């Protein structure tokens, strides 16, 4: 289950079977958007529901299967539910009758391992109010208050919403600027956007659209051009660009065409700095120069998409990396949240896409396995820049504003 094109904060609802997870979602949304039944195990797979939450705004609730499911099929459902932890910004743990046992404790361990904040709801409180002893123990162990709640005629929905808004990280529903630290009022930014087989019919790709909006939000001017027109445009453009952002696939053309005194980067590196694991990318990218024959390379795509004959991740990067390294390398490509085909330690390096359709947290969670295992990680754009010999120029605009130029250049 991937986040797809939903950039809204994601909230996962967890708990045992028949504890009222779906009823809780309906109460929160104030409409029946989740199937409710007295039969335990009605929800079999994680299901996404989009709602508006006061204090948070548009959000996606994910209804999951019961964590106490049994049997071979039940274990598969539980595994799918736990996989949701990689894409959510907040977890809601539903309990009944103040029961707080190993299922709940183990689930909280999973929350903590994925650094997912959580709140605890004692649902069906009209039938069995919260036990104060359990409430005290949970607070002492986890620093979290349990909220009494009844999905039947909820009276304290505002209290629940308040706790959700307090617990969810602000970064999950507020967006920071991608280029603002590089720009001043009225600056002109040149965007080089090839129109090739991978470009969607009649549209720009998402990172290009995001860059245009960010430039306008910073009260600057966006000029968009294909790579073939760059040379003629740069000669007459006045004022000169304060920044040029190019598609990584035409990095060499852009580097040759744009005067060295004008900062140059790529859409993918822009996204890497904005919401990727930029610090670890900076550390990991140089390891591309140390690859050996037989090394395995993992390419991570954040979404599933139609694969073009000259796909950037599946075709171009492997071709460039083979040429750059001169080595016989093996490649695995994993899209969305699909399982890895081998142990993470089998890989010499991991190359993550720009992640235009997912959040910073989801990218970092996706890379956490590699980072924790000491496997170097990089990003499509940064890897391409390194292989083409223009890495330092491409990352330097962001290194400067992060005051870390001396550490990496």
Overall description:
It is a single chain. The protein is of the alpha/beta class. The protein has three domains: 10-172, 3-Layer(aba) Sandwich (Rossmann fold), CATH 3.40.50.300; 180-271, Rossmann fold; 279-387, Rossmann fold (3-Layer(aba) Sandwich). Helices cover 36% and strands 18% of the residues. The chain has helices at residues 21-29, 71-83, 102-113, 132-142, 157-167, 206-217, 230-236, 251-257, 267-275, 278-284, 312-325, 360-373, 380-387, 391-401, 405-408; strands at 10-15, 47-53, 57-63, 90-96, 118-123, 146-148, 188-192, 221-225, 243-246, 264-266, 296-301, 330-335, 347-352, 377-379. It has a six-stranded mixed sheet with strand order 2-3-1-4-5-6, with helices on both faces. Helix 6 links the parallel strand 7 (188-192) and strand 8. Helix 13 crosses helix 14. The longest helix has 14 residues, at 312-325. The chain is globular, with a radius of gyration of 24 Å. The two termini are 39 Å apart. Residues 1-6, 34-42, 305-309 and 404-409 have low confidence and may be disordered.
Distance between the termini: 39 Å
Order of helices and strands, N to C?
EHEEHEHEHEHEHEHEHEHHEHEEHEHHH
Based on Cα principal axes, name the global outline: globular
Major sheet, described briefly? 6 strands, mixed
CATH superfamily of the largest domain: P-loop containing nucleotide triphosphate hydrolases
Chain-averaged pLDDT: 86
Tally of structural domains: 3
Tell me the total number of β-strands: 14
Assembly state = single chain
Fold-level CATH name of the largest domain: Rossmann fold
